[in-house]
């Protein structure tokens, strides 16, 4: 067995909007407690390990299907999709009281990332061997948890470490009511147009009469809402550790990390320029810098992924059959 | 074999479903991993797996405590799962999969709470009688402790394994009359401790081997 650990400094290329919930119409950033070692706690924003791990699962599933030539076919069943992209589910089918090691080994052979990530297959839980840490915001509150090698780099690069409060931002976005725009009202059916004009008129009269009830009844669907973000350019420390049993698993781990970092987007608001991150410094990494060089996970060159791709391609027909019948 | 004190410096919150983490379990799991064994059951723990911890003279359990740490804060987090709708729309065979039910069954999303514990000085500690070098070697590849390790909980920043002075006759399993691990009811030196059902040797999840024993008061 070999334990491989890759650690990275990630930079937010866009503001990060990774929320835990809402308070009224304000989305709150995901936070967790950080202990200062003296009995005091701060709730510090972070990107969960769940998010980072799911990103790796997602990216590796795409890489796997690509290598097996199944990405452009609609060839998967519901269970196979659930297994690859969500880790599967206890379905109540199959016998959870028996662990068939031969079957387990076969599954790991056909889908190397499954052996590392774990999942629920044939109604039993397969433990993973991949430990993906949260992306820790580099700030004064978390500084003591940053390993020495990363601290040395931060010092050499003259990175100023400030409180997480400096990184936080609260922004407002508004979903407009299209019916307030005359040109869009022109697209309505005549009877719908009459209804809308009646509502707009009622709203104006309610405003003039200062009638709160009528104002509420006739208000537009415009929706302003606020959400917290972490500033563009914020730095994060992130590491992933894997217990690999053979060269194929090591290569699979490399592919998973590379595929994820090649297109690393976390949190919400992805559609509106939020969440993109890139690796700007890596340690213990014997793969090429993914963010610089990789456009897809199988384009890494000879040093990474070749074993994985060759293995998956070799078992293509078995994989197709397994994905057809798998219970997950 | 000498008295040893093991400390894990934790860099995040820790989630333990059973309250405490047994040192002998950690070492057996690592040994199994290094031997390429995929499954640990009662038969594999019965003696063919060597770990650098001494057993009690009767051989019923290892002379190692469970983890001890004083909780100073707790936090509620959630494990969320959303159904992979976009992926199913993109990749599923439309003839074979016509409808996906996301309100019940296997594709239903979930949000499961988990209670995270933070310990005083961010440390968990164990006591044992064992070979410090052997223990250090096995612990070196344990990077996370507890449940939900896969998503970074229980991250170990550093292991410290030191020889120590035993505190008295009960070392390392009885401290001030209290058990530091599950102990059989005939074990000497235990006074006024709670009695419950527990397993004396790994794997501790194997409830078929539960028996009445002294149980430690942890967290």
What does this structure look like?
The complex is a heterodimer of chains A (328) and B (219). By secondary structure, chain A is of the alpha+beta class. Chain A folds into 2 domains: 265 residues, no CATH class; 45 residues, no CATH class. Helices cover 38% and strands 24% of the residues of chain A. Chain A is built from 13 helices and 14 strands. In chain A, helix 1 crosses helix 10 and helix 10 packs across helix 12. The longest helix of chain A is centred in the middle third of the chain and has 20 residues. Classes of the chains: A alpha+beta (328), B alpha+beta (219).
CATH class of the largest domain in chain B: Alpha Beta
The level of helicity of chain A is: 25-40%
Binned strand content of chain A? 15-25%
Average residue pLDDT of chain B: 88
Q: What is the domain tally of chain B?
A: 2
Query: Pairing-aware structural class of the strands and helices of chain B?
Result: alpha+beta
Distance between the termini of chain B: 29 Å
Q: Write down how many β-strands of chain B occur, each being a DSSP E stretch of 2 or more residues.
A: 10
Largest sheet of chain A: 8 strands, antiparallel
Lateral arrangement of strands in the main beta sheet of chain B: 4-1-5
CATH architecture tag of the largest domain in chain B: 2-Layer Sandwich
Radius of gyration of chain A: 25 Å
Task: Please give a handful of descriptors for the protein shown.
heterodimer; A: 328 residues; alpha+beta; 2 domains; 8-stranded antiparallel β-sheet; 14 strands; B: 219 residues; 3-stranded antiparallel β-sheet; 12% helix
């Amino acid at each position: 067995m070999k334990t491989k650990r890759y650690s990275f400094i990630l930079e937010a290329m866009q503001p990060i909007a990774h929320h835990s919930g809402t308070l009224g119409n304000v989305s709150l950033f995901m936070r967790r407690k950080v202990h200062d070692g003296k009995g005091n706690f701060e709730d510090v924003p972070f990107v969960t390990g769940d998010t980072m791990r799911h990103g790796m699962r997602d990216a590796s599933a795409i890489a796997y299907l690509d290598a097996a030539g199944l990405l452009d076919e609609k060839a998967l069943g519901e269970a196979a999709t659930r297994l690859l992209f969500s880790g599967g589910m206890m379905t109540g089918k199959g016998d959870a009281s028996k662990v068939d090691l031969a079957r387990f080994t076969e599954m790991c052979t056909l889908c190397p990332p499954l052996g590392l990530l774990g999942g629920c297959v044939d109604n039993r839980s397969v433990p993973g061997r991949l430990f993906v840490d949260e992306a820790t915001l580099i700030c004064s509150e978390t500084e003591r948890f940053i390993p020495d090698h990363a601290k040395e780099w931060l010092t050499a690069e003259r990175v100023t470490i400030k409180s997480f409060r400096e990184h936080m931002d609260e922004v407002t976005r508004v979903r407009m009511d299209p019916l307030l725009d005359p040109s869009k009202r022109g697209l309505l059916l005549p009877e719908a147009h009459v209804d809308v004009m009646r509502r707009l008129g009622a709203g104006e009269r309610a405003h003039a009469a200062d009638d709160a009830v009528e104002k509420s009844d006739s208000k537009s669907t415009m929706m302003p809402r606020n959400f917290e973000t972490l500033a563009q350019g914020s730095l994060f420390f992130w590491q992933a550790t894997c217990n690999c049993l053979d060269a194929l698993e090591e290569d699979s781990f490399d592919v998973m990390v590379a595929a994820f970092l090649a297109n690393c987007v976390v949190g919400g608001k992805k559609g509106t320029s939020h969440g993109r991150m890139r690796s700007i410094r890596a340690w213990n990494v014997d793969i090429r810098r993914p963010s610089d060089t990789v456009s897809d996970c199988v384009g890494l060159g000879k040093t990474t992924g070749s074993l994985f791709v060759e293995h998956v391609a070799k078992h293509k027909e078995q994989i197709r059959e397994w994905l057809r019948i798998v219970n997950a | 074999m000498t008295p040893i004190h093991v400390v894990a410096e934790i860099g995040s919150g820790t989630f333990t479903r059973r309250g405490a983490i047994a040192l002998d379990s950690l070492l057996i799991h690592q040994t199994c991993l290094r031997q390429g064994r995929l499954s640990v059951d009662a038969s594999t723990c019965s003696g063919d797996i060597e770990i650098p911890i001494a057993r009690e003279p009767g051989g019923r359990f290892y002379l190692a405590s469970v983890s001890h740490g004083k909780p100073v804060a707790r936090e509620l987090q959630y494990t969320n799962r959303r159904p992979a709708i976009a992926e199913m729309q993109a990749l599923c065979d439309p003839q074979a999969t016509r409808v996906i039910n996301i309100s019940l069954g296997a594709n239903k999303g979930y949000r499961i709470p988990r209670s995270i514990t933070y310990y005083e000085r961010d440390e968990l500690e164990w006591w044992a009688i064992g070979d410090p070098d052997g223990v250090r070697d096995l612990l070196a590849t344990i990077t996370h402790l507890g449940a939900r390790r896969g998503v970074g909980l229980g991250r170990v920043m550093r292991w410290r394994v030191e020889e120590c002075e035993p505190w008295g006759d009960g070392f390392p399993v009885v401290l001030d009359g209290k058990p530091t691990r599950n102990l059989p009811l005939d074990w000497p030196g235990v006074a006024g401790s709670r009695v419950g059902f527990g397993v004396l040797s790994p794997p501790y999840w194997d409830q078929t081997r539960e028996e009445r024993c002294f149980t430690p008061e942890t967290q």
